[in-house]
Every structure is written in C-alpha cells, then in structure tokens.
Amino acid sequence: WPGSGEIDLVETRGNAHYGNIGITRIMSTLHYGPPATANGFQDAWPKTTAEKFSSGPTWGDEFHTYWIDWTPQHIQLGVDNDMILNSQTPSNCYWGYGGFSGSNPWPADHCNAPFDQEFVIQLNVAVGGTLGFFPDGLDNAGYPKP
After folding, report:
1. Angle (CA) 3 7 12, round 5°
2. Tag placement on the chain: N or C end, fewer CB within 10 Å?
3. What 8-state DSSP symbol labels residue 83?
4. How crowded is the C-beta side of 135, counted as CA atoms within 13 Å?
5. What is the phi/psi pair of residue 97, to 5°?
C-alpha cells in the first residue's frame, strides 16, 4: 500500500467532538503511489480527494446513498444526487499525475493503474489514529485525542 491503490467511497472522522471535520464532513479519496517500501511513503491522495459537508446536523441523521461511476475515462464518487469527487484519468497517467520519484511499478500501457483492476470498496469511519487524519492540537471538546 498504496501501490495497489485504494478507493475510499466515503471516509469520515466518526467523532461528534471534532467540529467541522467530525461527523458533519465526509471525504471521497483515491489513494495511490509506489509501495511504501520503495523510496519512503508517497501517496498522491491530496490530488484526488474532495469533501462535502452535511446539509443537516450530521451525516448520521438520515440514510444516504453512496455511489461510484468507474470507467476507463474517470472515477466519480458521490452521495445521494451529488458528486463529491470527479477524477478524470490523467493524460500523463496516474503515475505521472502523482509526480512520484523512482520507478513506475505499473505497466506503462496501463494509464489507469492501479485503478485498472478489481477492487474492494471501502467505507471508512475513522475513530482515531496518529498518521495525521486526527490532527494534534485540535479541540476535542474536553476529551483526549482519539
């Protein structure tokens, strides 16, 4: 990982005490890059992520329909009738678009790699961690950082 790619149809911080980055915000993200063992950790997710804020108090107040439209030309991720992320296949392929250093582990004739194979779709409700998704110094309404 992330050399095999990851499609997060929806990811959220499942925490009511994290203000506008808690349960009122969802994100859709494509993670990809060279394997973590090659040249250190590299992931192009900042180039292929988007967010949406709930129109009501939180995303947990109603049922929602999350969807994906995945073709050789694009990967689109959304909720209900709204598109969250529209990732068009880059003309210089995902490897070139990511701006990675080192050798491309994916076949040169597979511009959509690593998103050119079967995937498991992930619904991610994060509850804590130390890799930056739960920033240090963020007010957790009187509770310690998860």
Report:
1. 120
2. N
3. E
4. 8
5. -65, -35
